[in-house]
Amino acid sequence: MRKVALVALAAALVGGPLAGGAGAAPTATPNLKLGSQGAAVKQLQQRLKQLKYDPGTADGRFGGTTRAAVWAFQKVNGLPTASAGNVGLKTWRALERPKLPVVITAKKKRKADRVEISIKRQLVVVYRNNKIALISHTSTGSGRFEDGAVSRTPRGYFRVERKIKGVRHAPLGTLYNPIYFYRGYALHGSPNVPLYPDSHGCARLPFGTDMKIFNLVPIGMQVRVL
């Protein structure tokens, strides 16, 4: 009874089925990684999309966008990540009974529509009406001393202050579709979103995913960074 209740809760939070029927995980469990192609990759992409990750087009090609989605899924599910985005038996099994991201917004302060940026897990989760709309890998402040300051991502409760569709050339680099939540700090697309914190303080997003989040997140939306 407990397992059934947990699966139902997960389905409600992501806004769709997670087990059985159209929600079933792929039946094949081959080893996949960056550069893989074929039907198993397409199954993986379809399942990740169903779970609100963004692997890009479900075309059977394991590219950088799919790898970033795999990284995000593995981090949520407590699995090891690899630079090539390796998908083995443990990841396939986790796709059958996926975990939900840890909620980092205090219940008393939680808005139904919000963005959560987890520095610890290097994840971004967008909620709409208290349901998960999108989960993404991110790379936040490196913690290094560079350009005259320590590169840290500010923690706290914020709101989206402004958005710029397209490219913005800022003093510390180029930002794609930036969503500013505190002074010059933003969620934004980047060609370089590694597995480790590497930014000057912004939350970098994979190309493609940045535009999806840009469209999901309006000005004024709550942003929680922890």
Features:
226 residues; alpha+beta; Muramoyl-pentapeptide Carboxypeptidase, domain 1; L,D-transpeptidase catalytic domain-like; five-stranded mixed β-sheet; 25% strand; globular
Protein architecture, described:
By secondary structure, the protein is of the alpha+beta class. It has two domains: 95 residues, Muramoyl-pentapeptide Carboxypeptidase, domain 1; 113 residues, L,D-transpeptidase catalytic domain-like. 24% of the residues lie in helices and 25% in strands. It is built from five helices and twelve strands.
- Helix content range: 10-25%
Whole-number tally of structural domains = 2
Q: Give the overall pLDDT as a whole number.
A: 91
In the CATH hierarchy, the architecture of the largest domain is Beta Barrel
Question: What secondary-structure arrangement, pairings included, does this model have?
Answer:
Elements: H1 2-14, H2 39-50, H3 64-76, H4 89-96, E1 114-118, E2 123-128, E3 131-137, E4 145-146, E5 149-150, E6 156-159, E7 162-163, E8 167-170, E9 173-182, E10 185-190, E11 203-206, H5 209-216, E12 222-225
Parallel strand pairs: 1-12, 10-11
Antiparallel strand pairs: 1-2, 2-3, 4-5, 6-12, 7-9, 8-9, 9-10
Task: Provide a brief overview of the structure.
The protein is of the alpha+beta class and 226 residues long. It contains five helices and twelve strands.
